[in-house]
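Pipeline run #58 for the internal structure catalog. This entry was flagged by the ingest filter as a single-chain record with no existing model, so it goes straight to prediction. Upstream metadata was stripped on purpose; only the residue string is passed forward. Reviewer on rotation: M.T. Logging verbosity set to normal.
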Amino acid sequence: MTKIYIYSTAVICLIFFLKLIPLIKTKKAQSTTTDENYPYTLRRFLSQHEYKFYEALKPLADNYGYTIMSKVRIADIVEVQKGFNRSQYYSYFAKIQSKHVDFLLCDKQSVTPLLVVEIDDKSHNRAGRVKRDHFVDNLFKTVNLPIIHTNNIQTLENQVNEKMFPKKEEKEK
C-alpha cells in the first residue's frame, strides 16, 4: 500500500509540474519588460513570405550594386512639392504619410531610389487595396520611379530586369 501511495504521489507531482511548465514559460515570455509604460516586445520584422522575396532580391541587388530597403514609408521616398499653403500641404502629405512599400532597391553608393517592389497577395484584390495600389502606381509614375507588383519569386528576376533595363522599343513607348 505504501508503494502505491508513493507511486501515485509521484505521478500526481509529475502531472502537476508538466502542467506548470507551460505556464511558467508563458509568464516568462510575457514579462519581457518591467516598465508598465513600455508594454512592448520585439516582433519578426519580415513575414516568412516577405523574407523569401528578400532572399530572392538579395543576389540581384548584389549583382547590380544595389541595396535593399524594406518596409519603407512612401513619405520617406517622395515629398510634397513646395508652393502649397499649409492646409494643402497636409492634405497631400496625409495621402502618403502612413503608406509603405515592401521593398525599395537603391543605388548602393548614393542610396538613390531606383525601383519599388510590391508583393501582391490576396489582399491586393480588395477594393480599398486596389484603390491604394492605383494611387501608389500613379504617384511613382509621376516621380519616374518604376514599380513592380509581383507574387511570383520565379519571375522576380525577369521583372526587375525589364523595369531596370527596358528594351529600346519599350523606352520609346
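catalog note: The first helix runs from residue 2 to 30.
catalog note: The two ends are 93 Å apart (CA to CA).
status: ready for reviewer M.T.
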